Structures are given as structure tokens and as C-alpha cells.
Amino acid sequence: MEKILIITGGSKGLGLGLAKQYHKNGYRIFSISRSKIQKLYSVEQFQCDLSKTELIEATIEEIFSQLDQNNTANLTLINNAGDLGVVNTIENIPPQKISYTIQVNLIAPLVLSSLFIKHSKNWHCKKQIISISSGAAINPYESWAMYCASKAGVDMMTKVISKEQKDIPNGVSTVSIYPGIVDTDMQTSARNTPKENFKSVQRFIDFHENGELFTPEQVASKIYNLDISGELKNGRILDIRTI
Description:
Oligomer: single chain
Number of strands: 7
Helix content: 40-55%
Radius of gyration: 17 Å
């Protein structure tokens, strides 16, 4: 029986760390990302621009066409891909940039979750959606309006889906996870933002200089261990720094 992981943003950063972690523990990996992974291990890659809804639908349909529900023990979707967006106060951000960031960070996870639930409806295996959220969902940062708003939306998506699925026989379990401060391109982008555009930039510079960033591998290992330990109970919003 196969264990399946479908992950967005699996070509770098935390997504790559998670893909590697689950792969080494016997999962078949389907990575959806704009860029290709260096061929470090066996992974099935699908290039997809998550800002284009029609491409998401076609990609998920292609992935499910390659799966056998009668030979699947575990089916997991990780909504990992995210974009910090333009770091500036809201009046200084072009409308198309606002739209793009919300599309990637919130609309794509909603669409992916919808399609995942639809296509796995009659599958009798463990099914779960893990969404990588952020403390920014509950802590407002000036100049991060789109990121904070979209992550708050992801958390509410998790809560709503958990209610919709909880009484369905063999429904999909869903959780949101705050991974802490991870050493990724997003952190680099935050540190390199001019102070006049981002008042909290020094805080993020200090995180880096003081060695307070987690590696993607550390966070991926923690998330996987939470998964196999049964901590990812339906509807939970978890901050891995407090567990």
C-alpha cells in the first residue's frame, strides 16, 4: 500500500525539506511548483503557476489519474507554497501585486483543498490536508498586509473544512501549522527590505545574525514527527515552537 504526499512549493525551502523528509520515510512525492527540483531523489514533479486557477485544476486531475485508491494507505496534501509579496504599506502596492499574492497564498490553497477533497471523496484511507500558515495570521506586521491577511484566511479555511468534514465517514482531517522563523528565501527578502518600507526589518536582521532561524530540515522533521505521533488532529492550529 502506498503513502502519497502532494506538496506545493516542493522545489526549495521548507517545501523541499518536507518533500525529502516524507520521501525518506516511504512516501511517493508529487511536487507542484514553478521551478524544478534538482534531481536529488525520486520525485514526480509538476510545474504549475499557482496564480492561474485553471492550471491548478488540470495538475490535480493529472496527479489523481496516476493514483490507485485501492492501493493507497495514506493521502496527504501539504499547502506549502507562499509569497511574501511586495513589502510596503498597502497604499504603495499596485493592485495586480495584491491580487497575485492573495491568489498564491489563499485562493490556491482553497482550490487545492477543494479539488483534493472532491477527488478523494470515496477513498477509504487516511486523508489529511496540512497547510503551512504563519504567526503573521494573528500578529499584524506593518507592510505585510497581504501576507498577514492571506495566512489568517488559511487558518479560517482550516477551521471551516474541519467542521465540514468531521461528521463525514472517512472525512479529510485538516490542520494549520505555524513553522516558526525558517531560513528561506522569504526571510532573505524580509531582511533586504529598505527600512522606510518595513519598520520591523531590524528584527528580522537580528533573527539571522543571532542564529535564531530554524533550518528547513529541522522544521520538516518536527512536522513529520507531529504527523506520525497523531498530534495533527482535525481543526488544530499548531505553532511548532510551543509543542
